[in-house]
Design a protein that fits this description.
By secondary structure, the protein is mostly helical. It has six helices and no strands. The chain has helices at residues 7-35, 43-47, 57-79, 87-110, 114-138, 140-166.
Length: 184
């Protein structure tokens, strides 16, 4: 009877965190994509040459929803690890990698900065690896939940690298040609 909280109370604490973090992170990812007009509806992106191994458009939305949900669950596990050594640095690393993640779509799709987006993925991958390592030290399950995201970031880095190679003038590409461009 010397417990501060029962197992059921501790589980409910984690569930409360998860009910906050999962929808929040999924929403932030969705919002960043919508804000930057990501995907094939973006005329600039549709005009770019893509590698033959580029996945279908629907896969990106499905994959990112799963990754963001898994990141939310991992974050809830870390937030629930009250008093864990390294918790604050793990949370800081998570925030850094998430901010970098959310900045990628606007940089690539809205600003048309393919090369800068490539370097951003490199920074994001480094931050995500450090976050995953920190998560493993606190709760192994949280670290495991981050691994599919890391794998996808490596794939996204390869895609961005190939898009950069195939479209060296992507930053200056104006879909629709000069008929829609007006010079003053």
């Amino acid at each position: 009877m010397g417990e501060i909280a029962s197992r059921a109370q501790l589980r409910m604490s984690y569930l409360r965190w998860a009910l906050l973090t999962v929808p929040l992170i999924v929403f932030l990812g969705f919002f960043a994509g919508q804000l930057s007009n990501s995907g094939y509806s973006n005329a600039w992106f549709a005009a770019l040459e893509r590698p033959s191994w580029f996945p279908p458009g629907w896969l990106f939305g499905a994959a990112w929803t799963v990754f963001y949900a898994m990141m939310g669950v991992a974050l809830a596990l870390i937030l629930d690890a009250r008093g864990a050594r390294g918790q604050q640095s793990a949370l800081t690393l998570f925030a850094v990698q998430l901010i970098l993640n959310l900045a990628w779509s606007p940089l690539f799709f809205a600003a048309h900065q393919v090369t800068a987006a490539l370097w951003l993925i490199v920074a994001m991958l480094i931050a995500a690896v450090l976050t995953t390592r920190a998560f493993f030290k606190i709760r192994a399950v949280a670290g495991w939940l981050m691994l599919p995201y890391l794998a996808w970031l490596v794939f996204a880095l390869a895609l961005n690298l190939e898009m950069n190679r195939l479209n060296p003038d992507a930053e200056r590409l104006q879909p629709g040609g000069s008929a829609t461009q007006f010079a003053v």
